[in-house]
Amino acid sequence: MATSGFKHLVVVKFKEDAKVDEILKGLENLVSQIDSVKSFEWGEDNESHEMLRQGFTHAFSMTFENKDAYVSFTSHPLHVEFSAAFTAVIDKIVVMDFTVAAVKSPVVVAP
């Protein structure tokens, strides 16, 4: 099994008064400015049963070349600044950081 980078996975439930659209725009802006972020995906859960979701609504996934690139990202001044705003609007959060074990690579579809 090959390794394929380092992943930062965040699952959150925002506070009721959170301006989620603004947070999402800020996050997209953040990752576009920091080269160590190789990919960024996010989604809002609208399919799972509430019992399984446990109140969590959004998932964010970032991929880095390796753990050192992730550590560099976490100490970047833009990330430090954004994290303070992000944390302020979070009701619940789960964070997982791990080396990716690539079992089946994504299929790249030609345009």
TrEMBL record:
Can you tell me which residues the record assigns to a coiled coil? none
Organism's domain of life? Eukaryota
Q: Which Pfam families match?
A: Dabb (PF07876)
Q: Which Gene3D superfamilies match?
A: 3.30.70.100
Q: Where is the Stress-response A/B barrel domain?
A: 6-98
Complex and partners: Homodimer.
Task: From the Swiss-Prot or TrEMBL record, give the protein name.
Answer: Stress-response A/B barrel domain-containing protein
